[in-house]
Design brief:
The protein is an all-alpha fold and 153 residues long. It has helices at 4-15, 17-36, 59-78, 88-111, 125-145, 148-152.
Length: 153
């Protein structure tokens, strides 16, 4: 005898709106990735001299990227019950995040020989289209997953 809960779960997966809602976006992402991503990539070129592998790492860019993310996420964590949104610390952290982000963009575009995140790749449609599709897929998954717990209760 098969457990009735297992049958109910299988039926829910087959007829679930979340499953049916994600299938078209997933297929669109797979097909567009297959059609738009180039088959071969060019070998890396640059004016970086041979030598220590550690010398090639963009520590400044890595620090600025980490600081940008930290200064953006920290106020999201501490505000609400602990500190009000209008507190000078929260506004200062958001301002610091914007400043660090600006410095990161400057360092990556003008100063780093081998940037940790080369910003010129954001101009390529081979990068932007899959990124947009991933964003839409995640938005669809989050839009379905957050309302589901009240649905089960």
């Amino acid at each position: 005898m098969v457990c009735p809960f297992l049958i109910a779960d299988v039926l829910y997966l087959i007829s679930s709106r979340s499953f049916l809602g994600q299938c078209p976006l997933t297929l669109l992402a797979i097909i567009s990735t297959y059609l738009l991503v180039p088959k071969q990539t060019a070998p890396p070129t640059g004016d970086v001299k041979e030598g220590s592998k550690l010398a090639r790492i963009d520590f400044t860019g890595a620090f600025l990227l980490a600081a940008t993310i930290l200064f953006f996420l920290l106020p999201l964590e501490i505000t609400g019950e602990k500190i009000p949104w209008t507190h000078p610390l929260v506004l200062g952290l958001f301002a610091s995040s914007i400043a660090m982000g600006g410095l990161f963009v400057f360092v990556e575009t003008h100063w780093a020989k081998e940037p940790i995140f080369p910003l010129h790749i954001l101009r390529s449609r081979h990068v932007i289209i899959p990124d947009i599709l991933v964003f839409l897929q995640l938005a669809a998954q989050l839009g379905v997953c957050f309302p589901e717990p009240p649905f089960y209760s």
